[in-house]
Amino acid sequence: MGKSSQTVASVVRDALAKSSAQLAEHERGVFEGDQHAVHQARVATRRLRSDLRTFEPFLDERWAKTLRGELRWLTSELGAVRDIEVMRDRLRGHTEQLTPEDADTVGHVLRRLDADREAARVSLLSSMRSIRYSQLRAALSEGAKRPRLSARAAKRPDRVLGRVVRARWKKLERAVDKLGAMPSDEALHAVRIRAKRCRYAAEACAPVFGHEANRFAREIAAVQDVLGEHHDAVVAGAWLAKMAQECAPSRAFALGRLAEVEHLAADRSRAEFADVWKRARRKRLRTWM
Questions:
Q1: Helix or strand run (H / E) with residue 45
Q2: What is the DSSP string of 67-84?
Q3: SS3 category, 53
Q4: Residue 199's Cα: distance from chain center in Å?
Q5: Each residue of 158-167: pLDDT tens digit?
Q6: Which domains does the chain have, with CATH numbers?
Q7: pLDDT for 222-245, tens place per residue?
Q8: Residues 6+ apart with CB under 8 A from 156
Q9: If you ran DSSP here, which 8-state letter would residue 59 be given?
Q10: Alpha carbon distance 175, 170 (integer Å)
Q11: CA distances for 256 relative to 91, 238, 250, 253, 262, angstroms
Q12: Is 60 left (phi over 0), alpha (psi -120 to 50) or beta?
């Protein structure tokens, strides 16, 4: 479909259809315990939520709000499993930086994450067998074909969608400008969320604006990745500190060594953030907006 024949409505339909198909494609893998499938299903629900908010001016407000609420529920269920998997695999990988003795000691503690993951997975699968999930999947399937649109959705996308992405960018830019010299972990995490929303908005509009939107999205993704690494390191360090309080001194010492690895990773990410942000905020990346 060429730009001249596109409307906002067609862009919205394509975006919702793509992510709805991604969720459906990985549903079986989620039931089978495939970590990649859980990750992809979570990405699909996050992107759907983001797209519904990005295209909010062109959608029926009540319909979009209700669908976002149900997607928030599913995203939370998927996230409960995925977050544990990410931290478990991360910490196990970082034990390679410890002595064999400390790595073995830490390994005993990390087995708790296997139990936590299984409990979260039981809850997830129960949710995905529920009537609520079936109704959500049906609503997504219908919405991908016939989203409930406002009159503004008949407009040409190249005339209005650039402003939508620019609004996301401005929110991200303001959040970064407020960070100060020594931003808190919470503030950096909030910037990461803004970056993700901005990236998703640019990618959703890329069929209209092409290479320029994709290039911008890649630079924002680099910001998101650096801050994602920072957040994962901070969360892992906090979990290790909590576990150390419940362990005998010998195990607490080994956990402390691993926590130091996470602290260093967080510091590296903080240092990298300035460079990736400098690249992402170049004006020439936004001439299409």
A1: helix 35-54
A2: HHHHHHHHHHHHHHHHHH
A3: helix
A4: 10
A5: 889 999 999 9
A6: 1-146 (1.40.20.10), 156-289 (1.40.20.10)
A7: 999 999 999 999 999 999 999 999
A8: 6, 7, 8
A9: B
A10: 9
A11: 12, 11, 10, 5, 10
A12: beta
